[in-house]
Amino acid sequence: MKAAAFSLVVLTLNVAGPRRLHQGWPTRREAILAGLKGVGADVDALQEVWRGDDLSALAGADGHASRAFDESLGLAVTSRLPLVSTASRDLGGGYGVLRARLRAAGGEFDVYSARLESGEGDALPRRLGQLFRTAEFVRAQSAGRPFVLLGDLGVGADERDSTLLLDLLEARDLCVSHGDEVCGRTLADRRVDYALIPYSSRLPAANARAVLTDLLPDEDEAAALHFGLSARLDGAFLKLKPSAAPPGRDEALASIDDALGDAIAEQNRRVLEAGWIPFLGARRLAAASDAIAELTAVQEEVRSARQRAVKRESPSIPE
Q1: pLDDT of residue 1
Q2: 185 vs 215, which has greater pLDDT?
Q3: What tens digit of pLDDT does each residue of 217-237 get?
Q4: Number of domains in the chain
Q5: Has residue 204 been placed in a domain?
């Protein structure tokens, strides 16, 4: 097949599958299977798939023989194209990103399925660290190779955090066309699911949209269940190469560094306060100390990335 004739439909869906089978799941799974058959994607990136039986059923709905699966992270990529290799990165707290390298007639490309932490408060700096580590994983795994990053990033498309990942990778959000949102919501009143590719002046995609929007048999579940997201990529996608030095990367790294510093300062404040509280103080002190250690480790990685970027721009600076 010539690259000009290449057409690839990709889909991402957080299926919210159970770790253990429960009474309501078979009905919802059947609805998902019917929805997947209706879309007929060439590649599915799935999140919160914890059971092998569920993965087999989901892949079978689209006739996908190739399957990459990290059961510990609940992440999967299935496809009708041949699978070359897989890799994954645990981002902590049960969140992570899975890479599947697929082969098409026009060349190999990488597909990622990611799930990051949602929520406010202490979840915010943790998610920033996950965004950073996801970007570093993609940059390392897909250097010189086209990629599409699919998944539930836990942050609304209209929030600042979502643009940080675009800046870290110099990526394009396929649900934004000429500055306008074209896909709509995927969870409650927000879009938290994404399809990202390396940036180019020409958009090698069409018909990015929310799909599987009728999978809510119970109105009480509406706030917790995701819609899917799909996009069609053409032959121009196979010619994309990720940027080795994204122009917005330095600013994004500085923003993350500052936010992590603020979060560490807040946790240190909690350590001081915990020392004055009997009984509960020890527990709060331990929690704050663990948070400080976690955030500090991420901040050190971010600062190392900033230093490497400076050295690349100024080769005369000694290692």
Answers
A1: 40
A2: 185
A3: 555 554 467 899 999 998 889
A4: 2
A5: yes
Residue 120 has pLDDT above 60, yes or no: yes
Regarding whether 161 and 142 lie in a shared domain, the answer is: yes
Distance of alpha carbon 15 from alpha carbon 41, whole angstroms:
15
| Nearest residue to 6 via CA among 189, 266, 237, 317 | 237
For residues 104 and 145, state if they share a domain. Answer: yes
Beta partners for residue 181, in sequence order: 176
Residue with tokens 């920033």: 128
- DSSP for 281-303 reads HHHHHHHHHHHHHHHHHHHHHHH
The torsion angles phi and psi of 196, rounded to 5 degrees, stand at -120, 140
Q: How far apart are CA 175 and CA 245, in angstroms?
A: 24
Range of the domain at 157: 3-239
CA atoms within 13 A on the CB side of 251: 10
Domain assignment present for 318: no
* Three-state secondary-structure class, residue 167: helix
